Amino acid sequence: MGTILVISNPSDTPTRYGYHYLKRFSRYAAKQGHRIIFLSTATLQTFRDAIRKYNPSLTIINGHGGRKGVEVADSVLLGVVDYDPELGKKIYRQNPEWMAGRIVYLFTCNAMKELGFRLIDYGAVAVAGFRDAFIFLSEEHASPDRDHLAEPFFISLLQLPLHLSAGNSFGFSTNATRKAFTYYLEKAEAENQTEQAKFLNHDLVNFLSIGDMEAKLS
Are 104 and 194 in contact (CB under 8 A)? Predict the structure, then answer.
């Protein structure tokens, strides 16, 4: 069984959805015997402290992503030194080496433009995320647990950590995510839900996984 670090702060509408679904995942993974560390108010210091104390084999970060960094509630928790056009800010300190020896899931937009590859350069075992915006549809005034429009997008996203926590390889788990997006895409097309199909396809083609496809949680 492995140790899983999940970072998610419900600071706005997109991250509230991520928070809801990652809480669901965390309950499942805990029942499988994994140790779950869930940080909802992460800062750079608490992120570093959690890594040092728990040494997670899987790290999941839900926030807003750019090509150079990942931001959670206005704090860049992971990144490389440079100006990030998607985040609209300059990153002055970098820490990609913190992910060395780990599987990383960047539950954000844009991070696989560059950051995911840099994490591999610094020793991450495997990384998955999106090279463009992650886009989902939602029902107006619906809470995440009752939003049927958003559900296919997030159920697809969860396949990667769900399958990893069930003992499957990184490659198998990332393919499960692609299969889920494809299933819901084809379902939307069959029901003539053209906008839903459009964005499911967008997310499918922009989902990227790199690194050791045989890696498993340990």
Answer: no
The pLDDT of residue 218: 83
Could you give the residue ranges of the DSSP H alpha helices within the chain?
Answer: 13-31, 44-54, 115-121, 151-165, 170-190, 194-206
| Nearest Cα to Cα of residue 157 among 12, 16, 34, 21 | 21
CA distance between the termini of the chain = 6
Structure tokens at 29: 């993974």
| Within a domain: 193 | yes
Instruction: Give the structural domain span for 200.
Output: 3-211
Number of H helices, E strands in the chain: 6, 11
Domain total for the chain?
A: 1
Whether residue 7 has pLDDT greater than 90:
yes
Residue 218 lies in a domain: no
pTM: 0.97
The answer to whether residue 93 sits within a structural domain is: yes
Alpha-carbon gap, residue 138 to 72, rounded angstroms: 21
**Is 217 inside any structural domain?**
no
Run of H or E including 163: helix 151-165
